[in-house]
Design a protein that fits this description.
336 residues; mainly beta; Thrombin, subunit H; Pdz3 Domain; 2 domains; 6-stranded antiparallel barrel
Length: 336
Amino acid sequence: MRKLKFFALAIALLGTGLFCGTSTVHAEAATAKYYIGGMTAGFLLSAGGAEVIGLSEVMGEDGIFRPAEDAGIRIGDTIVAVEGIRVKTITELNEALERSAGKEIEVTVRRKGEDATVPVTPVKDKKASRYKIGVLIRDTLAGIGTVTYIDSMTYRFGALGHAVCDENHNLLSISDPQMYLCSVVGVTKGTRGRAGELRGLFVNDTVLGSAETVGDTGLYGSFSRDYDFSRCELVETAPMSEATIGKAVIYSTVDGAYPQKYDVDIVKVDAANRDNKNFVVKVTDSRLIDETGGIVQGMSGSPILQNGKLIGAVTHVFLNDPTRGYGIGIEKMLAN
């Protein structure tokens, strides 16, 4: 196992059977079965470049320099290109700095979704004998989310239920397609004004599947057929038109590696919401409230079931009330 660093976070594909008549398509949709998820999955995501997480000094032959800071580069920026050449990893950035040989270069940084190019002059570090600009960077982020469902016929899965961003709200892409089972080893409880989070470990010898795409409604890919599905309930889905205010359940893993069922109430249904906030869910299960305070980071994607059918997934927590959160309708995840 390896320790997993969490970050705020804050996914399957369903074709439109054009080759069949309308009645046939409806019959297939009515009989489609999905394994309920609820297990936590760990994955690696790309920062989309070299993300600046700190600024530092460079000890050169002629003194101490701060090239990046002097150029206006800030913590939270992502270096995406050097001299017009795309930079995706730490290695690629270091190679670009070496090619500069100490001459001024044009560095493109992304800040809050917008790109800007600034001139920076690398300095040769006296001890390391290589060119630096005085930044501490990362090119990947590790996190966890909850698997929502697995199609029992195709083994396509959907997870998270929302876009994947870093703490600076930059959209992330997949760095390593392998998705590992996670064992939850601790919980920071949510309190009013502060979101809680799950803490866990990658179980490196248990690959859950391959993550392939990230979109506005979550993470999608192919689930491992070797997984023990004997623990998973097989259900049909229901559209938001069938969802009602009232009792429901969610499946989440807040301890160990296997999900438990918890009672919730659906207190609002908004099928037309464009931000994918189709449900407001309130946790009523005293066990979950005692363990986590309600909804916490890492529970995104927890499947929501009502009347025995899968209707959606938990996506966000209310900061002013951790027992409440938003959910997305399952039909929106499947439609992606």
